[in-house]
Amino acid sequence: MMRLLPRFVLLAMLALAGVAHAQAIEPMPFANHAQELRFQHLTAQLRCPMCQNETLADSNAPIAHDLRGVVFKLMQQGKSDEQIKQYLVARYSDYVLYDPPLQPDTWLLWFGPLLILLGGAVVVVVTIRKRHRSGSVTIEAPTGNGDDW
Amino acid sequence: MSRLLPLFGFLGLVALFAFGIWWNTQHDQNAIPTPLLNKPAPAFDLPQLYEPTAKVSKADLLGKPYLLNVFASWCIECGLEHPVLEAEGPTLGVELVGYNYKDAPADAKRWLAEHGNPYKVLLADESGQTAINFGVYGAPESFLIDAQGVIRYKHIGPLTPDVVANELKPAIASMLKEAR
Q1: A29: pLDDT confidence band, cut at 50, 70 and 90?
Q2: For position B47, what pLDDT does the model report?
Q3: According to the model, what pLDDT value does residue A137 have?
Q4: Number of helices (H) and strands (E), helices first, in chain A?
Q5: Position A4 in a domain
Q6: How distant is the Cα of B90 from the closest Cα of chain A, in angstroms?
Q7: Based on the domain organization, do A121 and A58 belong to the same domain?
Q8: Are B138 and B85 a contacting pair, CB within 8 Å?
Q9: Which residues of A touch B102 (CB under 8 A)?
Q10: Do A46 and A75 reside in the same domain of the chain?
Q11: Do A108 and A96 share a domain, yes or no?
Q12: Are A106 and A57 contained in the same domain?
């Protein structure tokens, strides 16, 4: 019995986790399952403007509830995912997109890591060439009197 | 020289860290940029809080600049902002338009009776659907709208005496100067 107890606790916790997650998403009158999946997929790509570390799908904030309603309404009107995103971006800026668009003010964001990588490569190449030119590629043993560090 | 390189690297990181902390004290982390700045305010047609049958539209408010102040009785920061609106409102040179956001009318009226009513016009958006067109995502938020109905300035969060003096009043001054 004592060995089973942890399993019961685990099961109970798993069940509660399911409840906690389901709370954020109130039932909506979807026409079919495909539409529901599309809704879940789309709202998971959009950021709640109020609580900025949560998606529209996960957030319990009042504005997230309202914006889920807007997404649902626009879907019923036959708008594409792209049109729905544009609708929200026009009101809440690119902030609502988890995937930032590639445009001049995000170039640094997209290509910055590449620049740093290239910088590192330059340092490595320069160092190797220097060592090569000095005639030795082996690491020299410290020759100081021990005060170096 | 190369012995000091790690130290310089470390100092560089310290500088970056200090800059990050300084930057975050200067900026509201919850404020997101509005794409509506210097664009026509979205159209609206909303009931008034004290006269629900007499609706007010964007067209009704054209011709005079106004400060649209989004507030709600459930919003704690609005209680902090309200004394500032009461004190500074008459000195702004523009009319105050209240925008009661996602609030039960009875709660809003009770809240205004308690805190005072500095608003010339009081709109009620109980569902919050119109507010979405303004990019509102909480309260308080304030929009400065000119006589042509263009959004000239937006502030997210409570208007403090500091914000009024350093941001709102200069924005109003440049708007009025342009209109003249």
Answers
A1: confident
A2: 96
A3: 52
A4: 5, 0
A5: no
A6: 30
A7: no
A8: no
A9: 62
A10: yes
A11: no
A12: no
Name which of A50, A90, A148 is nearest B137 (Cβ-Cβ).
Answer: A50
Residue position matching structure tokens 């009158």 = A29
CA B168-B174-B179 angle, 5° bins: 125
Domain containing A50 equals 22-100
Mean pLDDT of all residues in A45-51: 91
**Beta-carbon count within 10 A of A8 CB:** 10
Question: Residue A10 domain-assigned?
Answer: no
Q: Do the domain assignments include residue A126?
A: yes
Both A26 and A96 in one domain: the answer is: yes
Of A28 and B94, which is predicted with more confidence? B94
Q: Based on the fold, state whether residues A106 and A96 are members of the same structural domain.
A: no
- Predicted local confidence at residue A22, as pLDDT: 46
Integer CA distances (angstroms), B146 to B2, B11, B34, B82, B84, in order: 60, 48, 17, 22, 21
Looking at the predicted structure, is the pLDDT value of residue B172 above 70? Answer: yes
- Are residues A120 and A96 part of one domain? no
Residue ranges per structural domain of chain B: 36-179
**A34-50 average pLDDT score:** 93
Of the partner residues A63, A89, A148, the one whose CB lies closest to the CB of residue B138: A63
Residues of A in contact with B33 (CB under 8 A): 93, 95
**pLDDT in the model for residue A90:** 95
Counting the structural domains of chain A, the total is 2
Residues recorded for chain B = 180
Domain B36-179: homologous superfamily in CATH: Glutaredoxin (3.40.30.10)
Cβ within 8 Å, pair B33-A91: no
CB atoms within 10 A of CB B151: 20
**pLDDT of A66 over the 60 cut:** yes
**Which of A97-101, A120-124, B79-83, B158-162 shows the lowest per-residue confidence on average (mean pLDDT)?**
A97-101
Residues A48, A78 share a domain: yes
CA B27 to chain centre: 15
Chain A residues with CB under 8 Å of B30 CB are 50, 52
**Other beta carbons less than 10 A from residue B169's beta carbon:** 15
Residue B132: its pLDDT value, please? Answer: 96
Q: What is the pTM of this model?
A: 0.79
